[in-house]
């Protein structure tokens, strides 16, 4: 703080004290040194030296003199009429007794002083705020230390805020008010469907976007911040070539309706032209110059009063389309209408095809168990064309029974009529289309009984034929491997279950398929039994004589051909001299197998083990 104080009549000690009291302030001292020296003499001091012998306090009119240091500390206090000095109170050279007697006037940053009769000026410290301020203007008025006011920036003098304006008022640090975006200071709703009640970079109520839906002011779409009929032409409806919507700058819909203008999409060669009718629709106008042309050599092109027609050329007429040479009478240029026009091949549905071999041929029963009656799937791929009135011939080996065959499904067009002659099944096509070469065909027959013995079946012959039963493609489906069918309810019951007992064992089981009168049955005992001395006591369920033989654990009973073929039946076989296991165990299973004369298995079953105790 810089202050200028005029001092008069103060001793050196008093000046020193005053300076100490005002420590921390920068003072401007303006005084008359001759008067201060005189005051020092009056106070008992000589010049600038120390105190004299009687320099103590004196009394004047019975009142104690104030210490000069106290006078200094109070600026001008102690120099009024109540304060006297024996030799200085009536100093004829004094300027003042109080500050108000000094010339000039006090200001907010400068005050008159009267110090021991000497007028001076005291400046308020630099940066001291004055009492009167303008609030919230980012400024502060302070003293400049030289008795004048100055304005400085004040970032704490925050300006007033306006709510919901998307901005914050701030001081910019240079004494000015600035505004910055505050997107969290959201505005109150403006009830406008085309604006958002939000802030966008400090701006309230940003537009939602052109084309957004709205329902105010009879509008439907937002354009800027207004709800209008349209933002783009497509908002007004769907355009056609004869009805085109518009949308002007104000958001109003319009309509453009051309007339007698041909549309882009035309049906060529139909003797007509489609034009706009001026009301948003179309009209058809005859145009005989738009001659019909179906690109077909086997039709005649005619246009009559706007109506095209294509009458067929006669069958056998010459044409030249795709390498074909003959018209079929139905408007198609084909390869042939007679077999003679195909050389060594056949004319199948007006197309020449060579005789060939079926590929990927198979005949797969749904069940591979001997004697099963089930669906059988025939697959093959044609080499040549198969006519729409052609025939599929399937010849089965004699081991199949096809007397009750039926058609379950097929993948050829039209329908197939099934016929059976002995071992041949025929399927005649009708109502379909020509199957071209390399067509994969699938036919499922039901009610087919496969061979009643296991092993690989014989092949099945297939052929596609003309309606006159002339072979087109031929092929053969390889045989399939069949497994034996079942001997059900098989059991092995020893007469005695004692350990090491020797005696009778009864074996039973019901066969599924017929048993050849020259066939055999194998009884394969587990290793727990000793069957080396087995003998046949009886055999029920099959006619004729049997011969018993033993090989290891297998006892075989072979029919001697003097009986008859035995259909499915329950067999009961009684063997003697069978030795039980020599320990208390549950034996293994016994396997029963019927076979034809050459040893191929027919049926097979498993009898569970028995408990030996």
Features:
mainly beta, 3 helices, six-stranded mixed β-sheet, disordered N terminus, 4% helix, elongated
Description:
A hairpin with a 2-residue loop joins strand 3 and strand 4. The model is unreliable at 1-92 (pLDDT under 50). The protein is elongated, with a radius of gyration of 65 Å. 4% of the residues lie in helices and 38% in strands. 30% of the residues are buried. By secondary structure, the protein is mainly β. The chain has a six-stranded mixed beta sheet, with no helix packed on it.
List the helices and strands and how they pair.
Layout: E1 2-5, H1 12-21, E2 26-29, H2 33-42, E3 59-60, E4 63-64, H3 68-73, E5 110-115, E6 118-123, E7 139-143, E8 149-153, E9 167-171, E10 177-181, E11 199-200, E12 203-204, E13 221-223, E14 226-228, E15 244-247, E16 253-256, E17 259-262, E18 272-277, E19 282-286, E20 302-304, E21 307-309, E22 318-321, E23 324-327, E24 333-334, E25 346-348, E26 351-353, E27 356-357, E28 359-365, E29 373-381, E30 391-395, E31 406-410, E32 415-421, E33 424-430, E34 440-449, E35 455-456, E36 460-465, E37 471-477, E38 481-482, E39 485-486, E40 488-494, E41 502-510, E42 520-524, E43 535-540, E44 546-551, E45 554-559, E46 570-579, E47 590-595, E48 601-607
Parallel strand pairs: 1-2, 27-37, 39-48
Antiparallel strand pairs: 3-4, 5-6, 7-8, 9-10, 11-12, 13-14, 15-16, 17-18, 18-19, 20-21, 22-23, 23-24, 25-26, 28-29, 29-34, 30-33, 30-36, 31-34, 32-33, 35-38, 36-37, 40-41, 41-46, 42-45, 42-47, 43-46, 44-45, 47-48
């Amino acid at each position: 703080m810089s202050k200028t104080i005029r001092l008069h009549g103060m001793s050196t000690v008093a000046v020193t004290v005053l300076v100490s009291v005002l420590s921390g302030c920068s003072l401007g001292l303006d005084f008359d040194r001759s008067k201060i020296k005189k005051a020092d003499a009056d106070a008992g001091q000589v010049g600038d030296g120390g105190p004299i012998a009687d320099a103590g306090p004196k009394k004047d009119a019975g009142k104690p003199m104030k210490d000069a240091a106290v006078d200094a500390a109070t600026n001008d206090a102690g120099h009024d009429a109540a304060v006297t000095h024996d030799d200085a109170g009536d100093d004829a050279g004094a300027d003042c007794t109080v500050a108000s007697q000094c010339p000039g006037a006090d200001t907010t940053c400068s005050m008159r002083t009267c110090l021991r009769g000497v007028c001076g000026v005291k400046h308020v410290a630099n940066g001291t705020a004055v009492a009167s301020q303008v609030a919230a203007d980012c400024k502060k008025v302070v003293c400049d230390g030289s008795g004048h006011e100055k304005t400085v920036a004040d970032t704490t003098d925050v300006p007033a805020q306006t709510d919901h304006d998307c901005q914050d008022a701030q001081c910019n640090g240079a004494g000015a008010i600035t505004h910055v975006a505050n997107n969290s200071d959201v505005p109150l709703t403006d009830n406008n469907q085309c604006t958002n009640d939000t802030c966008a970079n400090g701006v309230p109520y940003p537009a939602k976007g052109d084309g957004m839906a709205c329902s105010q002011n009879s509008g439907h779409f937002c354009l800027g911040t207004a709800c209008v009929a349209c933002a783009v032409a497509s908002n007004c409806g769907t355009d056609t070539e004869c009805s085109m919507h518009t949308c002007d700058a104000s958001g109003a819909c319009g309509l453009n309706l051309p007339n007698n203008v041909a549309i882009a999409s035309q049906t060529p060669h139909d003797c007509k032209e489609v034009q706009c009718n001026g009301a948003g629709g179309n009209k058809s106008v005859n145009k005989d110059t738009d001659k019909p042309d179906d690109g077909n050599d086997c039709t005649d092109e005619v246009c009559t009063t706007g109506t095209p027609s294509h009458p067929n050329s006669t069958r056998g007429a010459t044409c030249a389309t795709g390498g074909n040479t003959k018209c079929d009478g139905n408007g198609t240029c084909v390869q042939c209408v007679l077999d003679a026009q195909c050389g060594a091949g056949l004319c199948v549905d007006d197309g020449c095809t060579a005789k060939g071999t079926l590929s990927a041929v198979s005949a797969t029963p749904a069940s591979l168990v001997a004697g099963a009656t089930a669906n059988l799937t025939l697959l093959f791929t044609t080499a040549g064309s198969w006519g729409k009135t052609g025939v599929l011939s399937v010849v089965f080996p004699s081991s199949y029974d096809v007397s009750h065959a039926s058609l379950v499904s097929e993948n050829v067009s039209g329908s197939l009529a099934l016929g059976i002659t002995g071992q041949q099944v025929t399927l005649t096509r009708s109502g379909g289309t020509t199957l071209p070469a390399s067509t994969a065909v699938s036919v499922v027959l039901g009610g087919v009984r496969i061979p009643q013995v296991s092993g690989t079946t014989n092949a099945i012959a297939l052929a596609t034929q003309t309606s006159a039963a002339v072979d087109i493609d031929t092929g053969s489906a390889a045989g399939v491997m069949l497994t034996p069918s079942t001997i059900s309810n098989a059991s092995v019951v020893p007469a005695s279950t004692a350990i090491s007992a020797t005696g009778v064992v009864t074996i039973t089981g019901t066969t599924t398929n017929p048993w050849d009168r020259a066939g055999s049955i194998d009884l394969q005992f587990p290793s727990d039994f000793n069957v080396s001395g087995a003998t046949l006591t009886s055999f029920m369920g099959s006619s004729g004589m049997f011969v018993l033989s033993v090989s290891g654990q297998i006892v075989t009973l072979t029919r001697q051909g003097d009986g008859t073929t035995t259909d499915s039946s329950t067999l009961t076989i009684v063997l003697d001299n069978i030795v039980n296991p020599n320990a208390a165990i549950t034996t293994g299973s016994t396997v029963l197998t019927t076979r034809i004369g050459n040893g191929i298995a027919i049926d097979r079953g498993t009898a569970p083990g028995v408990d030996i105790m």
